[in-house]
Write a sequence for this structure.
């Protein structure tokens, strides 16, 4: 029996039962049923968003830029690392061409796994946020493969009953050579393209591993209810993040950074 069938059955029972109840009890039952219905709707929205993000992942991994760009709203934005912001499906499609031609060519790998989803749907069921852990595997002919990790902080909007991406922001936090690994080598992110310049500069300026960078959380702590947007942490020794309690002054060099500098 489907979830919707169960809900309909519960609603029918709930409508019939109050006929033999006092008015106060009838109101209590109706209130509970309305709350359950709303909760189920939000859970269905969450499931739809997770499917939307997974669909984007399959398209993006295989170089299906046209299809991936079609998942965004008319003013949706796409931001990858430090490449800048692209707005609207046509510009997003151009930005994706920087990863290779439409449809992966021979010898290319563009895997971007999306794990550990935290999707929070607004009470009105019209907007949502999503945070994902991203693992990256890249390759192209004539070059060593690359390993990477990053974090997605995305936003979603429901239009005409369908969920779409209104903002996709991938923070590349670490990238390395496949053979050397993170202990010996770090690859820094690409900047804005001269071929397809972005519509806007990067919304956040930061450096990836061996520097540590933690994007602000879009959701509150699930137990304490406190905001996670201002967590203090050690900052980048160049750009820093003073707005989040990050010290932009001198700091002790990490052992990983020392090891890479000494290679």
């Amino acid at each position: 029996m489907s979830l919707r069938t169960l809900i309909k059955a519960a609603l029918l029972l709930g409508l019939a039962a109050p006929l033999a109840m006092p008015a106060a009890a009838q109101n209590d039952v109706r209130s509970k049923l309305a709350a359950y219905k709303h909760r189920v709707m939000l859970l269905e929205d969450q499931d739809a968003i997770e499917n939307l993000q997974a669909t984007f992942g399959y398209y993006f991994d295989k170089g299906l830029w046209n299809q991936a760009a079609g998942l965004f709203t008319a003013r949706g934005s796409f931001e990858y690392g430090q490449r800048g912001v692209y707005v609207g499906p046509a510009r997003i499609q151009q930005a994706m061409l920087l990863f290779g031609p439409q449809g992966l060519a021979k010898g290319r790998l563009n895997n971007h796994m999306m794990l550990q989803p935290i999707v929070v749907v607004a009470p009105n069921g019209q907007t949502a946020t999503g945070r994902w852990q991203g693992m990256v595997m890249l390759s192209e002919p004539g070059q060593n493969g690359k390993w990477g990790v990053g974090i997605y902080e995305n936003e979603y909007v429901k239009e005409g009953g369908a969920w779409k991406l209104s903002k996709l922001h991938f923070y590349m936090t670490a990238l390395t050579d496949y053979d050397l690994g993170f202990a010996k080598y770090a690859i820094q992110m690409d900047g804005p393209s001269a071929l397809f310049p972005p519509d806007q500069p990067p919304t956040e300026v930061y450096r990836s591993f061996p520097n540590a960078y933690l994007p602000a959380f879009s959701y509150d702590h699930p137990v304490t209810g406190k905001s996670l947007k201002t967590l203090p942490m050690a900052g980048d020794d160049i750009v820093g993040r003073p707005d989040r309690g990050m010290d932009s002054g001198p700091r002790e060099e990490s052992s990983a950074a020392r090891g890479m500098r000494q290679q």
